[in-house]
Design goal:
The complex is a heterodimer of chains A (about 110) and B (about 120). With about 110 residues, chain A is mainly β. Helices cover about 0% and strands about 50% of the residues of chain A. Chain A is globular and about 35 Å long. Chain B is an all-beta fold. A six-stranded mixed sheet of chain B has the order 2-10-9-4-5-6, with no helix packed on it. A four-stranded antiparallel sheet of chain B has the order 1-3-8-7, with no helix packed on it. The chains are: A mainly beta (about 110), B mainly beta (about 120). Chains A and B meet through β4, β5 and β10 of A and β5 of B.
Protein backbone atom coordinates (compact mmCIF):
# COMPACT_ATOMS: atom_id res chain seq x y z
CA UNK A 1 0.00 0.00 0.00
CA UNK A 2 1.12 3.56 -0.66
CA UNK A 3 1.97 5.42 2.53
CA UNK A 4 0.92 9.04 2.88
CA UNK A 5 2.70 11.15 5.47
CA UNK A 6 0.93 14.38 6.33
CA UNK A 7 2.46 17.25 8.27
CA UNK A 8 2.00 18.96 10.56
CA UNK A 9 -0.54 17.00 12.59
CA UNK A 10 -1.65 20.23 14.24
CA UNK A 11 -1.15 23.86 13.41
CA UNK A 12 -1.81 27.14 15.21
CA UNK A 13 -2.25 30.12 12.91
CA UNK A 14 -3.54 33.68 13.03
CA UNK A 15 -6.26 35.18 10.90
CA UNK A 16 -4.81 36.49 7.67
CA UNK A 17 -1.80 34.20 7.92
CA UNK A 18 -0.59 31.98 5.08
CA UNK A 19 -0.97 28.32 5.98
CA UNK A 20 0.72 25.35 4.31
CA UNK A 21 0.03 21.65 4.86
CA UNK A 22 2.05 18.91 3.21
CA UNK A 23 1.52 15.31 2.19
CA UNK A 24 4.37 13.10 1.08
CA UNK A 25 3.70 9.79 -0.63
CA UNK A 26 5.89 6.70 -0.48
CA UNK A 27 5.86 6.31 -4.24
CA UNK A 28 4.95 8.35 -7.26
CA UNK A 29 1.23 8.85 -7.74
CA UNK A 30 1.33 11.43 -10.52
CA UNK A 31 -1.32 14.00 -9.56
CA UNK A 32 -3.79 11.56 -8.01
CA UNK A 33 -4.24 13.33 -4.71
CA UNK A 34 -7.19 15.17 -3.21
CA UNK A 35 -7.47 17.52 -0.26
CA UNK A 36 -10.48 17.62 2.06
CA UNK A 37 -11.71 19.90 4.81
CA UNK A 38 -13.73 18.49 7.68
CA UNK A 39 -15.45 20.40 10.45
CA UNK A 40 -16.73 18.66 13.59
CA UNK A 41 -19.97 16.78 13.02
CA UNK A 42 -19.89 17.43 9.29
CA UNK A 43 -19.06 15.40 6.21
CA UNK A 44 -15.64 15.95 4.67
CA UNK A 45 -15.73 18.45 1.80
CA UNK A 46 -13.55 18.22 -1.29
CA UNK A 47 -11.26 21.22 -1.66
CA UNK A 48 -8.70 20.23 -4.28
CA UNK A 49 -8.73 17.33 -6.71
CA UNK A 50 -5.97 15.97 -8.91
CA UNK A 51 -3.51 17.88 -6.75
CA UNK A 52 -4.10 21.34 -8.19
CA UNK A 53 -7.73 21.73 -9.28
CA UNK A 54 -9.99 23.78 -7.04
CA UNK A 55 -13.39 22.17 -6.48
CA UNK A 56 -16.29 24.27 -7.73
CA UNK A 57 -17.57 26.59 -5.05
CA UNK A 58 -14.47 26.46 -2.86
CA UNK A 59 -12.78 29.80 -2.09
CA UNK A 60 -9.84 30.77 -4.26
CA UNK A 61 -7.63 31.27 -1.19
CA UNK A 62 -7.22 27.49 -1.24
CA UNK A 63 -4.69 26.10 -3.68
CA UNK A 64 -2.77 22.90 -4.26
CA UNK A 65 0.65 22.22 -5.71
CA UNK A 66 2.88 19.24 -6.12
CA UNK A 67 6.36 18.30 -7.06
CA UNK A 68 7.26 14.66 -7.38
CA UNK A 69 5.92 12.92 -4.31
CA UNK A 70 5.36 16.04 -2.25
CA UNK A 71 1.97 17.75 -2.25
CA UNK A 72 0.98 20.99 -0.56
CA UNK A 73 -2.27 22.65 0.35
CA UNK A 74 -2.01 26.39 0.87
CA UNK A 75 -4.47 28.83 2.37
CA UNK A 76 -3.22 32.25 1.30
CA UNK A 77 -5.00 34.22 4.03
CA UNK A 78 -6.65 32.35 6.87
CA UNK A 79 -10.32 33.12 7.50
CA UNK A 80 -12.29 32.12 10.62
CA UNK A 81 -14.35 29.60 8.65
CA UNK A 82 -11.16 27.76 7.65
CA UNK A 83 -10.66 26.41 11.18
CA UNK A 84 -11.11 22.69 10.61
CA UNK A 85 -9.34 19.40 10.07
CA UNK A 86 -7.65 18.85 6.72
CA UNK A 87 -6.60 15.56 5.17
CA UNK A 88 -5.27 14.29 1.89
CA UNK A 89 -6.16 11.18 -0.07
CA UNK A 90 -4.12 9.36 -2.70
CA UNK A 91 -6.28 7.60 -5.27
CA UNK A 92 -3.55 6.41 -7.65
CA UNK A 93 -4.31 2.78 -6.85
CA UNK A 94 -6.32 0.65 -4.48
CA UNK A 95 -6.42 0.68 -1.62
CA UNK A 96 -6.65 4.44 -1.57
CA UNK A 97 -4.79 5.74 1.45
CA UNK A 98 -5.06 8.86 3.53
CA UNK A 99 -2.83 11.29 5.29
CA UNK A 100 -3.11 11.38 9.05
CA UNK A 101 -4.83 14.75 9.09
CA UNK A 102 -3.97 18.27 10.23
CA UNK A 103 -5.94 20.04 12.92
CA UNK A 104 -5.87 23.76 12.14
CA UNK A 105 -6.60 26.04 15.09
CA UNK A 106 -6.53 29.75 15.76
CA UNK A 107 -3.54 31.18 17.54
CA UNK B 1 -27.76 17.77 -5.39
CA UNK B 2 -25.47 14.88 -4.55
CA UNK B 3 -26.11 13.32 -1.14
CA UNK B 4 -24.99 10.18 0.60
CA UNK B 5 -26.52 9.06 3.88
CA UNK B 6 -25.24 6.21 6.00
CA UNK B 7 -27.55 4.31 8.32
CA UNK B 8 -27.21 1.38 10.64
CA UNK B 9 -27.07 0.33 14.25
CA UNK B 10 -25.01 2.42 16.60
CA UNK B 11 -24.14 -0.55 18.79
CA UNK B 12 -22.95 -3.99 17.77
CA UNK B 13 -21.90 -6.78 20.10
CA UNK B 14 -18.50 -8.43 19.71
CA UNK B 15 -18.42 -11.28 17.19
CA UNK B 16 -21.63 -10.07 15.54
CA UNK B 17 -22.14 -8.73 12.03
CA UNK B 18 -22.32 -5.05 11.15
CA UNK B 19 -24.81 -4.07 8.47
CA UNK B 20 -24.75 -0.55 7.07
CA UNK B 21 -26.69 1.09 4.28
CA UNK B 22 -25.61 4.03 2.14
CA UNK B 23 -28.55 5.73 0.46
CA UNK B 24 -27.59 8.05 -2.37
CA UNK B 25 -29.37 10.77 -4.29
CA UNK B 26 -28.42 13.14 -7.05
CA UNK B 27 -26.50 10.54 -9.03
CA UNK B 28 -26.88 7.01 -10.35
CA UNK B 29 -25.12 3.96 -8.92
CA UNK B 30 -24.67 2.72 -12.47
CA UNK B 31 -22.69 5.81 -13.31
CA UNK B 32 -20.46 6.20 -10.26
CA UNK B 33 -18.62 3.97 -7.84
CA UNK B 34 -19.30 4.15 -4.12
CA UNK B 35 -16.62 3.55 -1.53
CA UNK B 36 -16.74 2.69 2.15
CA UNK B 37 -14.20 4.38 4.40
CA UNK B 38 -13.90 4.10 8.14
CA UNK B 39 -12.07 5.83 10.93
CA UNK B 40 -11.50 3.58 13.91
CA UNK B 41 -11.49 5.50 17.16
CA UNK B 42 -8.18 7.23 17.67
CA UNK B 43 -6.85 6.13 14.28
CA UNK B 44 -6.66 7.42 10.73
CA UNK B 45 -8.99 6.94 7.81
CA UNK B 46 -9.04 3.52 6.18
CA UNK B 47 -10.35 2.59 2.74
CA UNK B 48 -12.51 -0.47 3.19
CA UNK B 49 -13.77 -1.30 -0.28
CA UNK B 50 -15.83 -0.19 -3.21
CA UNK B 51 -18.83 -0.99 -5.34
CA UNK B 52 -17.97 0.00 -8.87
CA UNK B 53 -20.51 1.52 -11.25
CA UNK B 54 -20.62 -1.78 -13.18
CA UNK B 55 -21.33 -3.88 -10.11
CA UNK B 56 -17.80 -5.13 -9.51
CA UNK B 57 -16.42 -4.99 -6.00
CA UNK B 58 -12.97 -4.73 -4.49
CA UNK B 59 -11.87 -4.88 -0.90
CA UNK B 60 -9.02 -3.86 1.35
CA UNK B 61 -6.97 -7.02 1.75
CA UNK B 62 -6.85 -6.46 5.51
CA UNK B 63 -10.64 -6.73 5.72
CA UNK B 64 -11.45 -8.91 2.74
CA UNK B 65 -12.19 -12.07 4.72
CA UNK B 66 -14.84 -10.28 6.80
CA UNK B 67 -16.31 -7.78 4.36
CA UNK B 68 -19.03 -7.82 1.73
CA UNK B 69 -20.37 -4.90 -0.31
CA UNK B 70 -23.51 -5.12 -2.42
CA UNK B 71 -26.12 -2.79 -3.88
CA UNK B 72 -29.72 -2.33 -4.93
CA UNK B 73 -29.76 0.10 -7.81
CA UNK B 74 -33.55 0.35 -7.78
CA UNK B 75 -33.39 1.74 -4.25
CA UNK B 76 -30.19 3.76 -4.79
CA UNK B 77 -28.55 1.89 -1.93
CA UNK B 78 -25.17 0.34 -1.30
CA UNK B 79 -24.73 -2.11 1.55
CA UNK B 80 -21.80 -3.04 3.74
CA UNK B 81 -21.67 -6.18 5.83
CA UNK B 82 -18.72 -6.99 8.02
CA UNK B 83 -18.66 -10.00 10.30
CA UNK B 84 -16.77 -10.99 13.43
CA UNK B 85 -16.68 -7.48 14.77
CA UNK B 86 -14.27 -6.68 17.57
CA UNK B 87 -13.82 -3.65 19.80
CA UNK B 88 -11.16 -2.19 17.52
CA UNK B 89 -13.79 -1.93 14.78
CA UNK B 90 -15.41 0.84 16.82
CA UNK B 91 -15.38 4.09 14.90
CA UNK B 92 -17.10 6.18 12.26
CA UNK B 93 -18.07 4.63 8.94
CA UNK B 94 -18.50 6.72 5.79
CA UNK B 95 -19.66 6.13 2.25
CA UNK B 96 -18.26 8.33 -0.48
CA UNK B 97 -18.78 8.82 -4.17
CA UNK B 98 -15.94 7.74 -6.39
CA UNK B 99 -15.48 10.66 -8.74
CA UNK B 100 -12.14 12.46 -9.17
CA UNK B 101 -10.88 9.98 -6.61
CA UNK B 102 -13.52 10.68 -4.02
CA UNK B 103 -15.66 13.77 -4.01
CA UNK B 104 -18.87 13.70 -1.96
CA UNK B 105 -19.05 12.03 1.45
CA UNK B 106 -21.84 11.16 3.81
CA UNK B 107 -21.76 12.50 7.35
CA UNK B 108 -20.80 9.11 8.67
CA UNK B 109 -22.33 6.76 11.19
CA UNK B 110 -20.75 6.03 14.53
CA UNK B 111 -20.54 2.33 15.35
CA UNK B 112 -19.62 1.09 18.81
CA UNK B 113 -18.63 -2.52 19.33
CA UNK B 114 -19.32 -3.43 22.92
CA UNK B 115 -20.96 -6.09 24.99
Amino acid sequence: DIQVTQSPSSLLASLGERVTITCQTSQSISNNLNWFQQKPGQAPMLLIYYATSLQTGMPSRFSGQFSGRSFTLTITSLEPEDIANYFCLQHYNTPSTFGGGTKLELK
Amino acid sequence: QVQLTESGPGLVHPSETLSLTCTVSGFSLTGYSVYWVRQPSGKGLEWMGRMRYNGDTSYNSALKSRLSISRDTSKNQVFLKMNSLQTDDTGTYYCTRGAMGMDYWGQGVMVTVSS
